[in-house]
Write a structure and sequence with these properties.
Elements: H1 13-44, H2 49-52, H3 66-75, H4 93-124, H5 127-131, H6 137-164, H7 178-184, H8 186-206, H9 210-228
Length: 235
């Protein structure tokens, strides 16, 4: 059964540090693949800007912001370094803009599905039941940690997917609608680009239910994949 563990500090320092260690692989994979996909797709569409600064790589040091990591681990919201692009270089502006925008979230979706499948197969094949009776307690604890690491990889990739699809700058989703807004409402477009980050913070931290909705979307996807393989999924 797939079970998340609490990400927030609850007074148990050792437990909190363990949760951070289990979250880090997921965070590194989700952000590194997401940003590298942007740079790769931009280069494919004719813009080598990201490639020229070394962003077509899975090296996390090229993609991470220290403050972004710290904020994520302590308040659940963080960020990576945006990949620099020059849309004027695209062979086809509209196509390039759309493909570069969705390349990151598409990569996150693929990773999330793969790791949810892995978790489902580990469950339905009774791997844990086979190993645990012959394991000492430390081995059992290791399997529990491994289980949670795999869960977090799937879950955080889905969080990054749905979060980035919010059509508010600086998120990827705004690239899919900004052309329409700029043409139809040029005055609003200027405010939209200027104050988007403030609106995003207001939405996430002051509007009830937004964070819960993002989490629910992730669980629905994971439940769907687990159902296909006959794996139980509990919260």
């Amino acid at each position: 059964m797939l079970r998340p563990i609490n990400m927030l500090f609850s007074g148990d320092i050792s437990g909190f540090l363990l949760r951070i260690l289990m979250l880090l692989p997921a965070l590194v994979i989700a952000v590194s693949f997401h940003e590298a996909a942007h740079a790769w797709m931009a280069n494919r569409m004719g813009d080598p800007t990201g490639k020229n600064v070394g962003r077509i790589t899975l090296d996390p040091t090229k993609h991470f912001s220290i403050w972004g990591i710290v904020m994520f681990l302590f308040i659940g919201f963080g960020w990576g370094k945006p990949v620099p692009t020059n849309p004027r270089n695209y062979y086809n502006y509209k196509k390039g803009n759309a493909l570069v925008a969705i390349s990151g979230v598409t990569t996150n979706l693929i990773i999330a599905v793969i790791f949810t499948v892995v978790l489902s197969l580990l469950t339905v094949t009774n791997v844990y039941d086979f190993i645990l009776p012959y394991s000492i307690q430390t081995d059992a604890s290791f399997l529990n940690i491994l289980h949670n690491i795999i869960f977090y990889i799937a879950y955080l990739n889905l969080i990054l997917l749905f979060f980035n699809l919010i059509p508010i700058p600086p998120l990827d989703g705004h690239h899919l609608v900004k052309g329409f807004i700029a043409r139809k409402m040029p005055g609003f477009y200027m405010a939209y680009m200027r104050y988007g980050f403030i609106v995003l913070m207001f939405l996430l931290f002051l509007v009830p239910g937004v964070s819960s909705l993002l989490g629910s979307l992730c669980f629905w996807v994971m439940r769907g994949v687990a159902f296909i393989f006959g794996a139980p999924f509990g919260l």
